[in-house]
Amino acid sequence: MDKDYITYIKEEFFAFIKDVGPTAIKAIVALIVGLLLIRLIKSLIKRLLRKTKIELSLRTFIESLSIFILYGLLFAVIGIILGIQATSFIALFGAAGIAVGLALQGSLANFAGGVLILAFKPFRVGDLIEVNGKLGEVQKIDILYTRLETFDGRILTMPNGNVANSDVDNRTMNPIRRIDLFLKFSFEEDIDKIREVLLTAVSEDDRVLSKPAPDVWLERIGDYEMEVTARSWVNSADYWPMYWEQLETAKKALDKAGIQLTIPKRGVYQLGEDIPVFKKKDK
Fold first, then answer.
1. Share of the chain above pLDDT 90, in %
2. Is the CB of residue 156 less than 8 Å from the CB of residue 88?
């Protein structure tokens, strides 16, 4: 290879390093310092938000939004150091914003959904909600997603846009909830005795509220059985433990009183065989 050509390549390379090197070093230093500052600012923002009385839902949203803004500013500073003029940078951001906006319409909808959730507060961090058939406790509300934790320990990440446009069943917004026990009995059982036994069973726990008072009603008369509903009110935090305990308590009380829950039966008879007639038992 021609020595003059190699010399020319070396000269051009060193000239490039001489021209670009200081700027590149400045950009690298700015990147490192910027990342350190972002970590420091994130820590300060978290501390300040914890000291304020801002609710947890808004705190998590502000944290995620501030991180997004800080990284955007760092990117802009590095661009200016590399020689991109402010006007060109603004134009670049504008064009990029349009392109990104068209490409990320769903993400923008999720951002708007997050703002709506924080503005109208259909739920907050710590609430037990059901959305689109998914039941769980709200763990975090980000700028784009809401995270739920189910009873079996799964984490569900749901886009804010979908959540904001769906029916939200908030199970903990009200301080008290009603427990409904749906039980089926044979027509032969005494409804007054059923009511007495169930009222005693659901009222014996101190966590059951006296106002509204527990009640037991004949809910429906079906073709083969009657359905009775036992209702009681408890604090929302006690709902699930009390529901399972009351269901078990009601079953034990009915067994002790000699009242049986109806059991679906199906009879199979051969062609020509006499079908027995069931008569009401004597009391």
1. 37
2. no
